[in-house]
Amino acid sequence: MDDAAAPALGPLAGMKVLDLSRVLAAPWATQILGDLGAEVLKVEQPGKGDDTRGWGPPFLEDGSDRPDAAYYLCANRNKRSIAIDFSRPEGAALVRRLAAEADILVENFRTGGLAKYGLDAPALLAANPRLIYCSITGFGQSGPYASRGGYDFLIQGMSGLMSVTGRPEGEAGEGPLKVGLPVSDLFTGLYAAISILAALNHRTRSGEGQHIDCALLDSQVALLVNQAMNYLVGGEVPRRLGNAHPNVVPYRDFAAADDYILVACGSDGQFRALCTLLGREDLANDPRYATNAGRLRDRRRLELEIAHAIAPWRAAELLAAMAEAGVPGGPINTIDQVLSDPQIIAREMLQVMRRDDGTEVTVIGFPGRLSRSPASYRLAPPRLGQDTRAVLATELGLSEAEIEALRAAGVVAMGGPMRQDSEAERTA
C-alpha cells in the first residue's frame, strides 16, 4: 500500500510516535503501537540504519544490492523510515521539531546518551509537556549499572532466567541455557508498550506527559514469577529441571514410540484421566499421587511409571486420545510446522504485505483480537530512508530546495549508503 494512501485505523489512530530506537526491545514496542494504529516515524542513521538490517542471512531478496535481513523485518512494520543524522546540529533540530508535534517518543540509547544532542527527556518534555518519552535500556536510568550497555543474552544470565533453564545436574547435556528467543528484549518491549498506553490514559485525565524508564533487567526479573515467589516464600533456590515444572506433576515431555510429546496435567482430575487412558488406574488410586503435593514429592518415581506407559504409543495416536479424554497435551512443533498449523492459519496469524518497491514479505501478525478496533497491517517494513522526503515536506513543511540542501550536506538521506558512519551511529 502506498504510504500516502494508508488509512488511519485502530485504537491509536491519530497518535504520532517518534521512534529513535534500533535492534529489538524498543522497535518491538513501537511496532505494537503501529499495529494498533499509531503513526510511527522511525529515525535512522543515514547510510546504515537499524543495526538489524544487516543481521543476516537470510535477507529479503528484492533485487537491490543492499537487501534487508529477516531480523529487521520482524519488528518494523507499520512504520515510516526517515534517515537523519542528528549528531549534526541541523539534524538534531529536525528531530526536535518532530518531537514537538509527537505524542510519544521511544529511544534506546545508553543512559544520558541523547543529552548532548538536546534530545533527552528533560529537554523535549520542556518543549512539549504532553510528550510521553519512553527510554529503554539494559539497566535503567538509575542504579550502579545504569551506564552499562545491556544485551538480551547478558540479561538472561544476570536475571536468573538461565539458572532455571536447561537440563538439571547429573543428566546428559546438563548446564544453563538461554531461551531460544531474545525473550528479555521482547518482554521489555511489551512492558514498554503497556507503560506507554498507561501514560496515554494518564495524559487524557491530566494533560501531562511523562518520562518512562524501562530496563531489560527489571523486566526479566519481574517475569521470574512463580520461580522467584517459590524462593521468597519457601526459601529454597530454584534449580534447573529441564522440561519439568517446579510446581506441577506430571508436566513435562515424554518419549512416545516415534516422537516426543508434551503432557501438562494441571489438576488432579486431569491426572486421573491420563492414568485411565494409559491403563494405569493403579497410579490414579495410589494415595501417594492423589494430590499434586504428593506427586511433587514422588516426582521421579511417578514420572518413570508414566514414561513406561507412554513409550509404546505412537505420538499422534496418543495426542488424539488425550484430546478426546480432556488431558492437556501437544506436540513439539518445529517453526515450519507451527506456521502451517491449521489453528494458526485459521487465526490469520500470517499476513502478506507489500513494500513500496512491490516486494512481498510475510509477517507474523498482532495476536490480540479487538472486536471494535482491530490491529491493522498498513505499511510493510520500510526501506532505509524511503520516507525522508515525504515526512520533511508534510510534517515539517520544508520546501524541495531546503530538503535538497540538507541532503547535499549529508544531514538527511533518501536511501543508500553514505561514505562513513556519523557520530550518533558510532556512539549509540
From TrEMBL:
Keywords recorded for this protein, A-Z: Transferase
Domain of life where this protein originates: Bacteria
Keyword Plastid listed: no
One Gene Ontology molecular-function label: transferase activity
Keyword Transferase: yes
Name of the protein in its database record: CoA transferase
